Amino acid sequence: MPVFKAPFNGYSVKFSPFYENRVAVATAQNFGILGNGRLHVLDLSPDPGLPISELVAYDTADGVYDVAWSESHDSLLVAAVADGSVKLYDLALPPTANPIRSFHEHTREVHSADYNPVRRDSFLTSSWDDTIKLWTMDRPTSVRTFKEHVYCVYSSVWNPRHGDIFASASGDCTVRIWDVREPGSTMILPAHEFEILACDWNKYDDCIIATASVDKSIKVWDVRNHRLPITVLNGHGYAVRRIKFSPHVRNLMVSCSYDMTVCMWDFMVEDALVSRYDHHTEFAVGVDMSVLVEGLMASTGWDELVYVWQHGTDPRAP
Amino acid sequence: MAMRDLVTGATSCPDPAAPSASNPLGALANALVGSSSKTQERLKEIPTSTPTSSGYHFYSQTRDSVNELPGSEFDKPFPDGNSQGSQFFHSFRSANRGDLEDTWDEIQRLHGSPAQGRVGQIPISELDRSGTPQRVLSSFLHSFLDSGRGGIPFHPTSLPLLGLSEGDKQCIRDRSSIMARHLFADKSEEFIDAQLNALLCSLDIESTNHAKGPAPGIFRELEDYWNESQGNLKPGNHAADGWITEYRQHRETHDNPDAWAHSFEQQYGVNGWVSEFEQSQLSSADHIRGVNISNLAAMEQTRMLANTLAQNHDPKFQNSKFLQFVSKMSRGELIIDDNQVKETALPSSGNWAAEYQQHFNHGPTWADEFLNDKACLNTVIILPQFQVSHVPEQWATEFTTEEQHRAIDDQWVNEFSKLHVNDWVEEFGEQVGEGAFGENSADNWAQAYDEYINEQVAGKQHSDGSRGVYVFSDLNPYAGHPNPLKEGQELFRKGLLSEAVLALEAEVLKNSENVEAWRLLGIAHAENDDDQQAIAAMMRAQEADPTNLEVLLALGVSHTNELEQAAALKYLYGWLCNHSKYRTLAPPELSDSLYYADVARLFNEAAEISPDDADVHIVLGVLYNLSREYDKAILSFQRALRLKPQDYSLWNKLGATQANSIQSAEAIMAYQQALDLKPNYVRAWANMGISYANQGNYEESIRYYVRALTMNPKAENAWQYLRISLSCASRNDMMEACDSRNLDLLQKEFPLQ
Fold it and tell me: Hey, which of A73, B90, B163, B325 has its CA 20 to 30 A from A123?
C-alpha cells in the first residue's frame, strides 16, 4: 500500500469525510520540540500501486500537532499549532491566501482539534494551557473557553450523536464530559492513575467512551456507570497516544502508541487484540480510520512516514 | 435533554420537567435546554454539506450566530441577583477563583505567553523560522543520531549559523518536560527530573524551575468527593486546595537548585565525580577546576536513562532516533552553547576528557599532518613575519630549527601528561624515516594544531576577544613578494582564492592601511565561505577608510550571514549615509538608535529615487533577508540581477535567499548561474551542497562540499556540513577521512560529474 515520506516528524493523520482518497497530515520538525511545522494534504491514487501525491502543503512557524477536516465544507481544514494558534486553511483558495484564519487565544501549545460532526458549524481545540475552546467559522474569537482541567488537555472529542456534548482527556488524570449548554463539566471521570492522552466516543453507542493513558492501557467506559470500566485493554508497551473507534464496526477500535505500534482491538471479546501493526520505526502518534471506505486505515509517526492501508494487509507491502 | 439521559440514565434522574430549587444545576440546565432546542432547528436550515468553497461566508451574521450558539453566554458576565442559577454560579466561580487561579496566574506570568517568549519570531511571515539555522540544527541532530548507529563517536562541532534564542530554549524546556512525562510515566518524579536536567543541561538550558510542572497527580479527596457526589457535581474548594498545597510543595522542592546535587552525592558520594574524572587519565588541576560539575552529574544520570532504555530489548526501540536523541544529548555528546556557538568548536568542560582521549587516539593522523608541515617548512624561503604568539608556534619554531623530535618542549610534554608519548614519538619517527611527505598545505596542519590547542586550553583561554581580530596564515610564501597586492588581485581574478588570500595578507602586513587590499581580502574570505575572517578583514578596511561604500555593503552582508542584525543595520545604514546620491535621505539623528523598519523605509525611498541602481536593490534584498521576508528579498535580488546579470555574487545571494525560503530547486539554478560566471566560487559550491542536503539528496551534497573544500580546505563550515551529510547518507565509512581532512580520499570517493 502507498507510503508518503514527509520532511518532518508526523503528528496526526485524518481522512477527509468527503473524499475517500484524501488525507491530511500534520507534521512538526525536531520531534515537535523546536522548529517548523507543515500541513500536507495527500491524494491516494485509485491504483494502490501508484504513489501518494501531495495536493498541497502549508508551512507553519511552529509544529502542527493535529488537524481536523471540516464536516461542512470539503476544502476546509483546522490545524492545531504548537505556538498556540489555531489556523484555518481552504484548499480551494490559492496557497498565498492561506491560512484564511489564524486564531491566537491559547497561551500554550494546541494539541488537538475536533470538528463537530453533528452540528457541523463548530469545532473544539484543546491545549497545554489547560483549556478547551469552542470555535465557529463565523466568529473572529472563540465562543467559549472551558477551563477546569488543572493540567494539559491533550484531546477533546465531540459525541457522534449529540451535537452539544463532548469529552476531554487531560494530564490531570481525568476525563471530563461537557455539555456546551452548561456552565461547567457535567461529569468527571478519574479514568486512570496517570495522564490521559486521548479519548473517543463509540460511534454506535453514545454512552461508551474509550480512554488511552500513559499507563500503557486503554479503558472502555459506560458513562452511566463510571465506577468501573467495561474493560481494560493491555498490550501496548508504552504510553498510548491515540484511540479511535471504528466508524463501521461497533466493537472495533484502533490505537497507536509510543511503543511504535498501531493496534486494532475488539473490546467485547476476551482476546481483545485483533491485530498489531509494527510498521513504524519511531513513535506512532497519528492514526485514523476512513469513514467512507470500510477497513481503510492511515497512520503516521516520528519516522516521518504516512501509511495508508486496508485493515488485515501489511502496511509495508508494496 | 440528551446530556441528562446520557449521564444519569432514565431511572436515577429526577423528572427533568420539575426542577426543584434545591437543584440549581438542573434548573439551569432546563432553562438552557429550552433555548437550545430552538437553536438546533434554526441551524438545521443551514445546508450541511457544501462541497464548494463559495457557499460559506466568514464573519457574516456574526451577532446572530453568537446569540444562537448555546453556551456562548457563559463567557459573558452573569446577570446577578434573581436568577435561580446565580447562587450556583457564585460558588462555582469562587471555587475557581481562589488559590487555584492565583497560582496559575502566577505560573502564567512566569511563563509569559509563548508568543512573547519566542524571540525572533516575526508575525508577518509564516515561514520566519524556516531559515538556515533551523535546518542546520535539524540536520545536525539527525547526523548525530545516525552517528550512534554506526558506533562512531560523535564529535561536537560548532554550528556556525545556530543560535537558540531564549524563546527557543523555553520551548525546548517546556515541551521536553511534558513529553518526558509521557515516556517515563512509571518512573519516579526524581527520575524524570534527572532526565530532563541532563537533556537541558547538555543544551545549555537552565533546568526546570520555569517549566510546566508535572501533573498534580490523583487527588484522593477528589475521588472521595466524587463517589459522594455520584458523578453529578464538580470538585469543590477543598480538592482545589489540596492540589495547591501539593503543587506548592512540589515547586519548593524543584526550586531548590541543590536538589539534584544532593541526589547525585547520595548516589556517588561527594567525591564521586572526582574519582571518576581521574579515571579518565586527566592530571592537570587547571582543567579539573574548569569542569562544570552539573554537566558531569547530568551525564551520570543519563547512564541511568540508557539502562532504562536497554531494558526494552526490541531492536526497533533500540534504534529509535528520538530515544537516541534524548540519551545522546543527555550524555553531553551534543553541545549547543548559545554564546560561543559561532566560535571554534569547544567541547564542554565535562566532555573534555572524552575529547582529549579522542584526540589522543587520533595521534597518528596528527603526526601525519605535522609531517606534511615539516615538508612544507623545508620549502618555505622566508619565515613568517607575523605570528600569533602562543605556545604551539614557539614549539613549532623550536622544532623547525632543531629538526629533531627529541627536542620536544616541556610544556608540550606536560600537556600530553600521562599519555603514551613514546608511542607517538615512535610512530612519528617511523613516518619520518619512511619519508612519507604529503601534499597538504602548511595551513592545514597549523589549523588542525591550533584547534587542538584551543580545545586543550579551552577552559581558561577562549574569550570573545578573538572575534573581529584578523587571523593571519602562518608561513606565508608571499611574504617577500615585491608586489603582493598586484599578485593578490591577479590570483583573485583567476579565482585562486586561497592563494589570493595569502598574497593579500602579505600586502596588508607590509602596508596595514591599504584599504583595497583589506577589502579584497575580505571579499576573498567571503567567497571562500569564511565570514568571520571576512568581517575581520572588512573591519580593518573600514578603519582605514570609514566611508568606502563597497566595504560597508560587504560588512552588512557578512553580518547578515552571521545573523547579527544590529551590526548589519549599522553598516547598511552607513552605506546610505556615505552615498553621494542618498545621504540626504538619512537623518543624522537616526544613527543613534537603528530600527529595522526605519532603515528598510529609507532604502525603499532610495529605490524610488533611482530604480536603476542595482546596489540599492541589493541592500534591500539583504535587509529583507534580515527580516526573513524572503519573497521580497528574492524580488529585490531579481531586480538587481536585471541590472547586473554578470554579478556572480548576486546570483549566489539570490540562491541563498531562495534556499532560505525553501525553494531549494530554484536555489540550485541560481547557484549554477553563479558558478558558470565564476567556477572557483567556493561559497556557491558549498551553498549548492546545502541545497542538495535540504532536498534530502545527501550523496549529491557531499560531492559539492568536497569540491568546495578542495578549493578551500579552510572553509570550516563546509567541513561540518560535510560531516552532517556523510552521516545522513549513512557514509560513516568516510567519517574518518572527513575527520582527518583527507581530501584526496574524499575526492576519489565522491567525484563530481
Answer: B90
At the second CATH level, the architecture of B544-749 is Alpha Horseshoe (1.25)
| DSSP string covering B622-659 | HHHHHTT-HHHHHHHHHHHHHH-TT-HHHHHHHHHHHH
> How far is C-alpha B15 from the geometric centre of its chain's CA atoms?
63
Other residues' Cβ atoms within 10 Å of the Cβ of residue B100: 18
**Residue A28 C-alpha, separation from nearest chain B C-alpha, in angstroms:** 11
For the ranges A29-33, B423-427, B701-705, the lowest mean pLDDT is seen at B423-427
Q: In degrees, to the nearest 5, what angle opens at C-alpha B4 toward C-alphas B1 and B222? A: 150
Architecture of the domain spanning B468-543: Alpha Horseshoe (1.25)
Instruction: Specify if A317 maps to a domain.
Output: no
Selection from A24, A1, A21 nearest residue A12 by Cα: A24
pLDDT at B85 over 50: no
pLDDT tens-digit readout, B146-186 = 433 333 333 333 333 345 677 777 777 788 778 777 877 66
Predicted confidence at residue B572, as pLDDT, reads 85
AA identity, residue B240: A
Asked whether A2 and A23 are in contact (CB, 8 A), the reply is no
CB B543 within 8 A of CB B516: no
Q: Are A98 and A60 in contact (CB under 8 A)?
A: no
CA distance B157 to chain A (A): 19
CA-CA distance, B554 to B655, in Å (whole number)? 17
The burial of B11, by beta-carbon neighbours within 10 Å (0-12 exposed, 13-18 middle, 19 or more buried), is given as exposed
Instruction: Verify whether the Cβ–Cβ distance A181 to B49 is below 8 Å.
Output: no
C-alpha–C-alpha distance, residues B52 and A65, integer Å: 27
Rounded to whole angstroms, the Cα distance separating B620 from B626 reads: 10
Q: Which of A185-189, A246-250, B102-106 has the highest mean pLDDT?
A: A246-250
> ipTM of this complex > 0.95?
no
Helices (H), B203-258: 220-229, 237-255
**What single letter denotes the amino acid at residue B153?**
P
Range 183-212 of B in CB contact (< 8 A) with A: 183, 185-186, 212
Q: Do domains B468-543 and B544-749 have the same CATH topology?
A: yes
Q: Shortest CA distance to B668 belongs to which of B656, B679, B680, B678? A: B656
Q: In this structure, what DSSP letter does residue A225 have?
A: B
Domain boundaries, position A199: 3-310
